[in-house]
Amino acid sequence: MFKSFLTLLKRDLMLALRRKSDVFTVLFFFVIVISIFPLGVGFEADTLRKIAPGVVWVAALLASTLALERIFANDFADGTLEQMLMTPQPLSVLVFAKVIAHWLLTGLPLVLIAPLAGLQYHLSLPTIGTLMLVLLIGTPVLSMIGAIGAALTLGLRGGGVLISLLVLPLYIPVLVYGAGAISASMQGDVPLQAYYLLLSAFLLLALVFAPWATAAALRISVE
Amino acid sequence: MAINWFKYSAPSSFYPLAGKMVPVFMTLAIVLTLGGLYWGFFQTPEVLSDQKQYYKIIYVHVSSAWMAMWLYVVMVAWAVLGLIFNTRVSYMMASATAVTGGIMTAISLWTGAFWGQTSWGTWWDWDPRMTTQLILLFLYIGYLALQSSIEDTRRSDRASAVLAMVGLAIVPVIYYSINCPNPNECASLHQESSLERVESNILIGMLVTTLGFWMYCFTVILMRVRNIILRRESHTSWVARLEEMQ
Amino acid sequence: MTLSVKQLQCSRGDLCLFQDLSLELQAGQLLRLEGKNGSGKTTLLRTLCGLFMADEGEILWRGESIRKTPEVYYRELFYLGHQNALKLDLNPLENLQVLSRLVGQNVSEEVIEIALAKMGLAGYEDVPVRKLSQGQKRRVALSRLLINEAPLWVLDEPFVALDVAAVELLQSIIVQHVQDGGMVILTTHQAVPLPETKMQRLSLDRYV
């Protein structure tokens, strides 16, 4: 079971290495969304600092939903998804591998580029640390929940927009506490532990239940 | 006496049953709603005269807001029944319920906006209850959007059922996060129920109207499900034999 | 080792494709499905693979419902549909390795190379599948027949897009598998040279 998990994880990473553009489009989308906000709201440092948590998170949510469309689409189109449905292991294990690979390719880069956003929005060093940490805990939750939406909309016309419609409301808790933690860290002496614990709890729940729901959705959609 | 419930899981036997229930629920809906509104409008004390009686919109506002939340649970229940027993009527009930639920959510938001304008001077406020209601509307919209974008009815039924279940699982978390965006300030969620402070005559009016709304929802859901059955079963012989088809 | 299908009924949308379909396949037998376009051949194959949910009826493998013990069934089932299930950016060797590892099978590189060579793809091991022709891609997919250890093969139009030489090769592989005690279910317009005793035919046109 673990072997097929690793096989699939390795395969998806290898495929991404051979088509790097897919990874970079999501990353640059994130960077561009973050960079055009100040053009709209003005360059005043205080305003920027105030909107930074929300802007970064909303950009991350949008980037995540954009990237999700492709998570199963290629495997569906070339028939490998069918083969995955017919393996002796539980499908949720393979789904788990795919979502992890997807997060490594589209979520982790956002975490790593986040300090750039921190500089653009005049955030202090500790706040940038918080920003990276909450993105690190929060973006896998987005990938996990989003995968359910991607599985449900597999092969549908206008799948991308539809995914956003389905999963954006479900992202709200991550948005609220992810952005809340960053705002709180700007006030200095507010303890952040509660935010981290809540986000970690979401992550844990998503890791346990989302692959299972995604597997069920895939079986329905591939039929 | 044991009733064979599965008998009614066939569209051909559920259709006439629903047809028989519609007039009953409709009568109850009219009587209860009018009764509740009458009680609320004319039997309540005029203590709130400073608010110019605008508050009376709550008989519609609160009732529809409750219905919006309950119907989501009802919808998921039908969807789960469908997934477990693979009964087509359950899925049809789920999708009929979703439409009414979405409309109820919209009504509650709309009436809430009017009430907010008259009592707070603003159409919209990011108050936790209103925000939750707005998210609920989005969940209904997502469900209906997914359902209508899948052409194959079996896939559309089952896929939207999964989505509804996922939605219901996450709703409490969404509710918590909206009510308590700062976890340092509320370790546990103890929102006091505002019902206890309500004057008893107003409460009676509200409860009776809500009961009327329940009946109204049953009525339109059953009418809608009859339409869905006819549309989906139009190729079958039992539909062709129906009197209204002649 | 028996695959038995009992009173199967499948429909797509409002259309009932077939109903009350029963069959039984023993080791060392081949089942050939026939029927017009749209008669439900592919749907039947997908149902047999557990990909499509039947309205009614059940499918038993070794006496157990495939819904209840999929982990047993899928270890012994090999399915090849219209699509080749190949990743265009990987080469044939990598593709076959990944696919066999996914079903929990450990195959050495030599075995895969021998299989590819037998399918006439020697020298193409390291070429991305994207650069191969349609027929070559199909051959890569079909070389999985030589690698997998599953007794039951379900093949949907396996002869499509193959040239004459490849058709003959595939015929001999299928015949060999049946003679070795394997089971094959396929849809094709191509003749399969097998003695009638080992061959069952099923026409779906009768079940509408």
UniProtKB/TrEMBL annotation, chain A:
<feature type="transmembrane region" description="Helical">
    <location>
        <begin position="194"/>
        <end position="218"/>
    </location>
</feature>
<protein>
    <recommendedName>
        <fullName>Heme exporter protein B</fullName>
    </recommendedName>
</protein>
<dbReference type="GO" id="GO:0005886">
    <property type="term" value="C:plasma membrane"/>
</dbReference>
<dbReference type="InterPro" id="IPR026031">
    <property type="entry name" value="Cyt_c_CcmB_bac"/>
</dbReference>
<keyword id="KW-1003">Cell membrane</keyword>
<dbReference type="InterPro" id="IPR003544">
    <property type="entry name" value="Cyt_c_biogenesis_CcmB"/>
</dbReference>
<keyword id="KW-0812">Transmembrane</keyword>
<feature type="transmembrane region" description="Helical">
    <location>
        <begin position="161"/>
        <end position="182"/>
    </location>
</feature>
<comment type="function">
    <text>Required for the export of heme to the periplasm for the biogenesis of c-type cytochromes.</text>
</comment>
<feature type="transmembrane region" description="Helical">
    <location>
        <begin position="93"/>
        <end position="116"/>
    </location>
</feature>
<dbReference type="Pfam" id="PF03379">
    <property type="entry name" value="CcmB"/>
</dbReference>
<dbReference type="GO" id="GO:0017004">
    <property type="term" value="P:cytochrome complex assembly"/>
</dbReference>
<keyword id="KW-0813">Transport</keyword>
<feature type="transmembrane region" description="Helical">
    <location>
        <begin position="51"/>
        <end position="72"/>
    </location>
</feature>
<keyword id="KW-0997">Cell inner membrane</keyword>
Automatic annotation (TrEMBL), chain B:
<dbReference type="GO" id="GO:0020037">
    <property type="term" value="F:heme binding"/>
</dbReference>
<dbReference type="GO" id="GO:0005886">
    <property type="term" value="C:plasma membrane"/>
</dbReference>
<feature type="transmembrane region" description="Helical">
    <location>
        <begin position="62"/>
        <end position="84"/>
    </location>
</feature>
<feature type="transmembrane region" description="Helical">
    <location>
        <begin position="91"/>
        <end position="110"/>
    </location>
</feature>
<feature type="transmembrane region" description="Helical">
    <location>
        <begin position="202"/>
        <end position="223"/>
    </location>
</feature>
<keyword id="KW-1133">Transmembrane helix</keyword>
<comment type="function">
    <text>Required for the export of heme to the periplasm for the biogenesis of c-type cytochromes.</text>
</comment>
<feature type="transmembrane region" description="Helical">
    <location>
        <begin position="130"/>
        <end position="146"/>
    </location>
</feature>
<comment type="similarity">
    <text>Belongs to the CcmC/CycZ/HelC family.</text>
</comment>
<dbReference type="InterPro" id="IPR045062">
    <property type="entry name" value="Cyt_c_biogenesis_CcsA/CcmC"/>
</dbReference>
<keyword id="KW-0472">Membrane</keyword>
<dbReference type="GO" id="GO:0015232">
    <property type="term" value="F:heme transmembrane transporter activity"/>
</dbReference>
<feature type="transmembrane region" description="Helical">
    <location>
        <begin position="158"/>
        <end position="178"/>
    </location>
</feature>
<protein>
    <recommendedName>
        <fullName>Heme exporter protein C</fullName>
    </recommendedName>
</protein>
<dbReference type="InterPro" id="IPR003557">
    <property type="entry name" value="Cyt_c_biogenesis_CcmC"/>
</dbReference>
TrEMBL record, chain C:
<dbReference type="InterPro" id="IPR003593">
    <property type="entry name" value="AAA+_ATPase"/>
</dbReference>
<dbReference type="GO" id="GO:0005524">
    <property type="term" value="F:ATP binding"/>
</dbReference>
<keyword id="KW-0547">Nucleotide-binding</keyword>
<keyword id="KW-0813">Transport</keyword>
<dbReference type="GO" id="GO:0016887">
    <property type="term" value="F:ATP hydrolysis activity"/>
</dbReference>
<keyword id="KW-0067">ATP-binding</keyword>
<dbReference type="InterPro" id="IPR003439">
    <property type="entry name" value="ABC_transporter-like_ATP-bd"/>
</dbReference>
<dbReference type="InterPro" id="IPR027417">
    <property type="entry name" value="P-loop_NTPase"/>
</dbReference>
<keyword id="KW-0472">Membrane</keyword>
<dbReference type="GO" id="GO:0017004">
    <property type="term" value="P:cytochrome complex assembly"/>
</dbReference>
<dbReference type="Pfam" id="PF00005">
    <property type="entry name" value="ABC_tran"/>
</dbReference>
<protein>
    <submittedName>
        <fullName>Heme ABC transporter ATP-binding protein CcmA</fullName>
    </submittedName>
</protein>
<dbReference type="InterPro" id="IPR017871">
    <property type="entry name" value="ABC_transporter-like_CS"/>
</dbReference>
<keyword id="KW-0201">Cytochrome c-type biogenesis</keyword>
<feature type="domain" description="ABC transporter">
    <location>
        <begin position="3"/>
        <end position="204"/>
    </location>
</feature>
